[in-house]
From TrEMBL:
UniProt keyword annotations, A-Z: Heme, Iron, Metal-binding, Signal
Keyword Heme recorded: yes
Name of the protein described by the UniProt record: Cytochrome C
Pfam families the record matches: Cytochrom_C (PF00034)
Native organism taxonomy: Bacteria, Pseudomonadati, Campylobacterota, Epsilonproteobacteria, Campylobacterales
InterPro entries reported in the protein's UniProt record: Cyt_c-like_dom, Cyt_c-like_dom_sf
Superkingdom of the organism of origin: Bacteria
Annotated signal sequence range: 1-18
Cytochrome c domain sequence ranges: 18-101
PROSITE patterns xrefs: CYTC
Length: 109
């Protein structure tokens, strides 16, 4: 029984890791031209800062539909396109961004 539980936890770990890995791949393919990770300057915000300051569900909502969210996020205009991504890839990119910064500012509010 113990072995089964250990194997289950190990598999769960691998599958979570795989999602973040895919999220990183999707980020590089779809977002990296406009967003950096861990510094640098680009058109959109660095994802490390996004990870710090935004809730996971808000990050996902923005990726899905920037136009409906830009005012709520404090922007006066929307320049980010709505990208034709699969639901699974949006989830994985969200997991990837969320994983960049475990200590979230919004939790202190
Ligand atoms: C063509 C450039 C461009 C691409 C490609 C792009 N973004 Fe953006 N993104 C922006 C800009 C510019 C903003 C600022 C708000 C706006 O204009 O909508 C933004 C804002 C955001 C925000 C809100 C940031 C915040 O905390 O205020 C998130 C989250 C985000 N982008 C995620 C993504 C993800 C994930 C991808 C890839 C799937 C992506 N973006 C692709 C340009 C881009």
């Amino acid at each position: 029984m113990k072995t089964i539980i250990v194997m289950f936890i190990a598999l769960l770990g691998i599958s979570l890791q795989a999602d973040v890995e895919n999220g990183k791949k999707q980020y590089l393919a779809n977002c990296a031209i406009c967003h950096t990770v861990n510094g640098g300057s680009a058109f959109g915000k660095d994802f490390n800062i996004v990870s710090y300051t935004r809730k996971k569900e808000d990050i996902k909502a923005y990726i899905k539909d920037p136009y409906s969210n830009f005012e709520r996020f404090g922007y006066s205009a929307n320049a980010m396109p709505t990208l034709p991504l699969k639901e699974k890839d949006i989830d994985d990119i969200t997991d990837y961004i969320d994983s960049l910064q475990p200590f979230k500012v919004w939790m202190k509010k």
